[in-house]
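Extended Data, panel c. Modelled sequence:
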Amino acid sequence: MTNPEDLKKLEQKVAMGMPKHILIYGVLLWGIPTAIFYAAITPLFTGKGFIEALSFSLWAFPLGGIFYGLYSWLKTKNLLEKAKS
């Protein structure tokens, strides 16, 4: 059972729509920070430089963020439907 605050948050996330949810939660809040983190630690473990790692990660991780955002959207919508029933 979810409390009213959680239900309101779920409703707000669903109300923003799928494309906006994917952009914000998948690309901006997951993909880009993950890309920067990857680029920062890659030189410590490989021979690649920061810029080389960043040039790869700034397209790869936001692309993966689209799939993460879609998963997050579907999960949020499912949780809202279960909470309302």
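The mean pLDDT is 93. This feature is highlighted in the accompanying rendering.
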